[in-house]
């Protein structure tokens, strides 16, 4: 299964995609108004000409179906410990954090069923990959142009597979006959309309396996650059970057965070790229598809001892409702999918969870 954020936090039915937003979500002391509310890897490897891999699509299907089955059972029971049998890494952290949020809000995480899986099994010299990915739709939303991208890894050949990252990417272009003012493109309160770039075609060998990028180690450096690009004190973020193409997950995202500026509050973002064992896929045009796992720290604090923060939404629920704070620190999980062009040049961020990041932890110093 996939989390509330992953399942319901985005939709791409028309020309645009709708993202459910995370917001600064606070009011502050000294007479200020509310915070702005939105309207809206890689393991190295080479593309070897190996024979049909010994790890087959049928085996990948068994792994994925077991994951779906056990994830659904754990979700229905609210048993986060059971998730550890089929999940690990950032995905397990995210889902445990989401469970805490549901508990704080008195809500329940309803299971979501993935359908129409497409298996992305890397071609390796040994035929025994240590990772693979699955693109899938969500039951009841099969016409959505976006797909969930779930990665599975194991620590050795014959080892146990676990899901470690789940994010999203747009996999189909909009219909040329779709009206530009389709209801799916109209943001509701708490949503933002974005126009993601469609994921380019992956390079595949004669056996059908997807090819790994021969420059994976170099390609993965884009994750660190993306983390650095998103690290700043608002409103000092710089939308323009020689490393990235302009878009809703780069310049638009920086502008969005800069909009959180308040006169009596100091707000800063600091991201780091986590090492992961995810495959870097080679694209049909020679570029690379890198999936980054970023962890961000968002710090919100009064500029003087007289300034306080009164959070709302999820932050308020996690801290304990109705209290005032001198400072609040949140740790976010932010997967992102990036297209790195062959031979260098600005990268294109195809998707990013930064607008509605999972809050892995929220702590604060109470205002007195």
Describe the structure.
The protein has 368 residues and is of the alpha+beta class. It has one domain. The chain is 20% helix and 29% strand. Strands 9, 10, 11, 12, 14, 15 and 16 form a seven-stranded antiparallel sheet that branches. A four-stranded antiparallel sheet has the order 4-5-6-7. The protein is globular, with a radius of gyration of 21 Å. The termini are far apart. Keywords: Signal. Pfam families: DUF8094 (PF26366). Residues 33-54, 174-189 have a biased composition (Low complexity). This is DUF8094 domain-containing protein.
Q: What brief labels describe this structure?
A:
368 residues; alpha+beta; four-stranded antiparallel β-sheet; 16 strands; 29% strand; disordered N terminus; DUF8094; DUF8094 domain-containing protein; signal
Oligomer: single chain
The 3D shape can be described as: globular
How many distinct helices? 8
In N-to-C order, the SSE pattern is HEEEHHHEEEEEHHEHEEEEHEEE
* Structural Rg: 21 Å
- Main beta-sheet annotation: 7 strands, antiparallel
Give the termini distance in whole angstroms. Answer: 43 Å
The chain-level mean pLDDT equals: 83
> Strand pairing plus helix content: what structural class?
alpha+beta
In which range does the helix fraction lie?
Answer: 10-25%
Number of strands: 16
InterPro entries: DUF8094
Domain DUF8094: 51-173, 194-353
Protein name: DUF8094 domain-containing protein
Biased composition (Low complexity): 33-54, 174-189
């Amino acid at each position: 299964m996939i989390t509330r954020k992953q399942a319901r936090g985005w939709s791409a039915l028309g020309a645009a995609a709708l993202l459910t937003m995370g917001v600064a979500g606070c009011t502050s002391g000294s007479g200020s108004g509310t915070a702005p509310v939105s309207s809206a890897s890689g393991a190295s490897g080479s593309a070897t000409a190996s024979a049909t891999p010994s790890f087959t699509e049928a085996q990948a299907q068994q792994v994925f179906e077991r994951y779906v089955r056990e994830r659904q059972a754990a979700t229905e029971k609210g048993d986060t410990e059971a998730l550890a049998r089929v999940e690990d890494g950032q995905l397990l952290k995210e889902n445990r954090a989401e469970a805490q949020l549901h508990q704080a809000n008195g809500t329940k995480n309803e299971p979501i069923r993935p359908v129409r899986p497409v298996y992305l099994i890397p071609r390796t010299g040994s035929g025994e990959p240590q990772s693979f990915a699955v693109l899938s739709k969500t039951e009841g939303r099969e016409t959505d142009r976006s797909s969930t991208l779930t990665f599975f890894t194991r620590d050795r050949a014959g080892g146990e597979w676990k899901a470690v990252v789940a994010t999203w990417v747009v996999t189909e272009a909009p219909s040329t006959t779709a009206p530009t003012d389709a209801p799916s493109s109209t943001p509701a309160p708490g949503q933002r309309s974005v126009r993601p770039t469609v994921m380019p075609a992956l390079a595949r060998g004669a056996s059908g396996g997807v090819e790994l990028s021969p420059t994976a180690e170099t390609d993965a450096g884009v994750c660190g650059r993306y983390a650095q690009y998103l690290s700043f004190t608002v409103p000092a973020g710089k939308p323009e970057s020689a490393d990235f193409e302009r878009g809703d997950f780069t310049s638009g995202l920086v502008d969005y965070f800069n909009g959180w500026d308040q006169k009596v509050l100091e707000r800063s973002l600091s991201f780091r790229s986590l090492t992961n064992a995810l495959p870097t896929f080679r694209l049909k045009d020679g570029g690379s598809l890198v999936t980054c796992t970023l962890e961000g720290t968002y710090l919100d604090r009064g500029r003087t001892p007289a300034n306080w923060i009164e959070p709302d939404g999820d932050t308020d629920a996690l801290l304990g409702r109705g209290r005032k704070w001198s400072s609040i620190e949140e740790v976010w999980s932010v997967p992102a999918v990036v297209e790195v062009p062959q031979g260098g040049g600005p990268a294109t961020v195809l998707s990013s969870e930064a607008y509605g990041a999972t809050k892995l932890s929220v702590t604060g110093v109470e205002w007195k």
